[in-house]
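A protein record in our archive is deliberately plain, so that people and models can read it alike. The tokens are whole numbers drawn from a learned vocabulary of local backbone shapes. For reference, a complete record is included directly beneath this paragraph.
>
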Amino acid sequence: MGFSLLSLTRNLGGVSGFFQVVFVISLILVLFKAVQFYLRRQWLLKTLQTFPSTPSHWLWGHQLKDKDLEQILTWVEKFPSACLQWISGSNVRVLLYDPDYVKLILGRSDPKASRIYRLFAPWIGYGLLLLNGKKWFQHRRMLTPAFHYDILKPYVRIMADSVNTMLDRWEKLDVQKCSLEIFQYISLMTLDTVMKCAFSHQGSAQLDEKSRSYTKAVEDLNSLTFFRARSVFYANNAIYKMSSDGRLFHRACQLAHEHTGSRCREEVQSILGDGTSVTWDHLDQMPYTTMCIKEALRLYPPVPSVSRELNTPVTFPDGRSLPKGITVAISIYGLHHNPSLWPNPEVFDPSRFAPDSSRHSHAFLPFSGGARNCIGKQFAMNELKVAVALTLLRFELLPDPTRVPVPIQRVVMKSKDGIYLRLKKLR
């Protein structure tokens, strides 16, 4: 009995000692990380002291929730050219919204910010968006011929078919007395177009119930990836896998309707007639409609920002500089709303894009710029023109004053509670 009690006591002492060692090692690691965090933050504060910022929490950074876009407008007016945005304790990015700053960065060969863009890998894999260096160049060179004008020309008819399928669905709905959430329909129409143009898909994704679950998944990933990039905890794969998961806008929408409603429709009708046939040549004959589309893209760029990680130091035109390793974010939304570039930037004014108007080469970047601009920008512009033209021929679009869209920043810009419009049939 005495021997058994002695053995048990020794065993318990061994287990206790083991946990003590684990505790001490864990404590040392925590203290090491804390010191590392403190030194990194102090270095950033000193290195970036020439770039201003509004007050932020030492750990949580600028907690903006769904107020990102409003805060960016404040920063653009308060801080010339650039400012700091603290994502979390030692995670900061330099926000750029001056065209000279932007031109300098886009003219370099800095890679995309890996800490942010790597989060997209489980979703889209390592393709043109995520690759850097030689592999990116090889992919870009391989894909560029697919977007040549001669390849894009026959796609116009396919785009028109997909848009008409969407409009036919609208025709069957009773939308005279209530508003319609159009984002889901436009998402399916876009998916339908891409499937047919890129993969020669037979059938219609708009009429397939399975496609709706796909677009819903994309919408969810749009938000989840955005929030994960902003979280001090969920940036770690192991932790993330264990977790569960305005006013100015209204004004712009009203002005947009006043400008575009009749004049765009008259232009489209004079070119397309009843819209039974839309060709490549028609797309260059819609100057005012194109101006309106560009102004909409200025107000609400599809991708609000793009990020780069500096692989060499950079000095900006005003003498301020940044060292290697710093993340810079080109705020396309801030650039497009910079009052020094665009007078009354919240006002919808298509005349900004009149043929005789002039602006800085990097003041308008709805599809980014430089060597890594959007490879499909011409495809996207063509689809926008076809969709707008055919829609205006069949419907008058009226805002729903009870459901004003609220733009919010995600991976791509979206409306917080959807986009509701009243549709008035014209024929």
Notes: The chain has 16 helices and eleven strands.
